[in-house]
Amino acid sequence: MHPWVFMILALFSLSTLSSREAREGLRGFSVDLIHRDSPSSPFYNPSLTPSERIINAALRSMSRLQRVSHFLDENKLPESLLIPDKGEYLMRFYIGSPPVERLAMVDTGSSLIWLQCSPCHNCFPQETPLFEPLKSSTYKYATCDSQPCTLLQPSQRDCGKLGQCIYGIMYGDKSFSVGILGTETLSFGSTGGAQTVSFPNTIFGCGVDNNFTIYTSNKVMGIAGLGAGPLSLVSQLGAQIGHKFSYCLLPYDSTSTSKLKFGSEAIITTNGVVSTPLIIKPSLPTYYFLNLEAVTIGQKVVSTGQTDGNIVIDSGTPLTYLENTFYNNFVASLQETLGVKLLQDLPSPLKTCFPNRANLAIPDIAFQFTGASVALRPKNVLIPLTDSNILCLAVVPSSGIGISLFGSIAQYDFQVEYDLEGKKVSFAPTDCAKV
């Protein structure tokens, strides 16, 4: 991080304010997830056709995979991956006392929670006023020797002139957020409503020098990370939510909202649930890994031959990526079963498409994770491009990078539960519009 950034931040003088020391028991609550292409999203463009939205989602997937692979290949810091306008889902929460509403990108592949704060040296445009920590009775800045500060990577922290813990996050496209680490009350639900739940002393970044090289909607004000890192929202809530969260994702064109659930509400209680070990690698602590043993296509079995956590499960990437050799075997088996001729003139970046015939019989396709067979429906695997009457696979090769990723389209209409303490991920087919 550039020395001048820390010199600027050292000039800020923030007073230490009191905070509530409330202790909360195990609880359950849920929040709405807003798909970036839904009508309620600030990114919604009504002029786009369904096919154009799908292609844009595929392009976002490609961009995100490049950033993930950059980290996996070169051992970059986990927070170096997320570009705020590349996320797929947003959520509203409230911060401070009195509470102020914020809209942030939510992502299972990111850790630190941060938003833009005043006084700001350099902030990207946002529709509402910046968060003012000095106007909140529950704000405290973290000191350089505090436990919250030590949870940052050494290269991500410095000490300000007044002893504040200063964080610095550099993203994959050279964008960055720099600010003061602090603690504050985060609330979910409507302010003052009976369903509101609050969590005091939540660690977050108060960004006062933020720059993004890619345009961001002025309604989005920060990031809420759901990754496995110690500063993510789920890691911080920890025992208060039983170390459990789940989501139920709907396609972008649904008129309902997807749900993100925590604690007792996150537990799957329906029939048909299957579970697989959750693997968190010490060298890659932000990401959630599963082990994919095979994919079955009707009676055909395409094996991976791997057992060490070979696929990232990620809600922020629409497409599913498979290692190239495995992908080629998967496509060959699918083509043989379907008996179709693959198209050569493909809409980039999709890689496998064929004519959408009325009598086309789609075989049963299941991802065979260790201990869990997840049966996918056609909408989890195939993308209809109505403009050209073709079907394309929502599964693509990982372009020689050698990593696999289980994306959000494959997870549509599944309740997916993460049990960080029990170290497992569970799937249950669900009508997410009714959750």
From TrEMBL:
Gene3D superfamilies in alphabetical order: Acid Proteases
Q: Which InterPro entries match?
A: Pepsin-like_plant, PEPTIDASE_A1, Peptidase_aspartic_dom_sf, Plant_Aspart_Prot_A1, TAXi_C, TAXi_N
Position of the signal peptide: 1-22
**Which Pfam families does the UniProt entry name for this protein?**
TAXi_C, TAXi_N
Main location, first listed in the record: secreted
What are the alphabetically sorted keywords of the record?
Aspartyl protease, Glycoprotein, Hydrolase, Protease, Secreted, Signal
Q: Name one GO cellular component term.
A: extracellular region
Q: Name one GO molecular function term.
A: aspartic-type endopeptidase activity
Location of the Peptidase A1 domain: 89-428
Localization in the cell: Secreted
CDD domains in alphabetical order: pepsin_A_like_plant (cd05476)
Record's PROSITE patterns? PEPTIDASE_A1 (PS51767)
Any Gene Ontology biological process: proteolysis
Domain of life of the organism encoding this protein: Eukaryota
Protein family (similarity comment): Belongs to the peptidase A1 family.
This one is known as Peptidase A1 domain-containing protein
Give the encoding gene's name.
Answer: LOC100798398
